[in-house]
Design a protein that fits this description.
The protein has 176 residues and is an alpha+beta fold. The chain is 53% helix and 14% strand. It has helices spanning 2-30, 54-62, 115-123, 129-175, and strands at residues 75-81, 86-91, 96-101, 107-112. It has a 4-stranded antiparallel sheet with strand order 1-2-3-4, covered by helices on one side. Helix 1 (2-30) runs antiparallel to helix 3 (115-123) and helix 1 packs across helix 4.
Length: 176
């Protein structure tokens, strides 16, 4: 029992900082569906059709000055959802996302999308591959170890008590 407690304590100290960062960013990422600070709210399109051209999408993105879009090289990603009639363009600068109506090409909304930045922080990729695979990945293994050793430490006294109970009942039966 002392062996598991000792290792449980040391592993928890070693992984505390990366684990705290992973948990706190995970909590924020879990709120992205209803937290407009993390990701802009999405408007519904006029119809679930795709009639807008790529040039109309670029023109719509250019009309949002905060996104600083001048050409396709300023767009990092296009997310098209035909069933919902949604088109979202993500700008390379300052994490801006512009939603364009799939029929008219009008801008339905624009705002900062912080999700990508928090995902990179959550995974450790923000700090580079060495930190991601050299610190965050071993920390994840440490969390797995803490879970398993914590369960072992928790259930050992219960198992021991049950073992004593069986031994006592066997002694009682043998003496009768």
């Amino acid at each position: 029992m002392k062996f598991w407690r000792k290792w449980h304590r040391w592993v928890s100290i070693l992984i505390a900082l990366p684990f705290l960062l992973t948990v706190s960013t995970g909590i924020l990422l879990a709120t992205r569906g209803f937290n407009p600070w993390m990701q802009p709210s999405y408007e519904t399109s006029s119809a679930p059709e795709l009639k807008v051209s790529f040039e109309q999408m670029l023109a719509a993105a250019r009309s949002v000055p905060e996104a600083r879009v001048e050409s396709w090289s300023d767009i990092s990603q296009i997310d098209i959802r035909p069933k919902k009639g949604q088109i979202r363009l993500r700008a390379r600068h300052d994490h801006w996302e512009i939603q364009v109506d799939s029929v008219s090409g009008a801008v339905l909304g624009a705002g900062k999308r912080r999700v990508s930045w928090f995902v990179a922080l959550h995974e450790g990729a923000f700090f580079g591959p060495w930190v991601r695979y050299g610190i965050f990945f071993p920390s994840a293994l440490g969390v797995l170890f803490l879970t398993l050793s914590g369960l072992l430490i928790f259930f050992q006294p219960i198992r021991r008590r049950r073992g004593r109970g069986k031994a006592l009942s066997e002694v009682k039966h043998a003496s009768l």
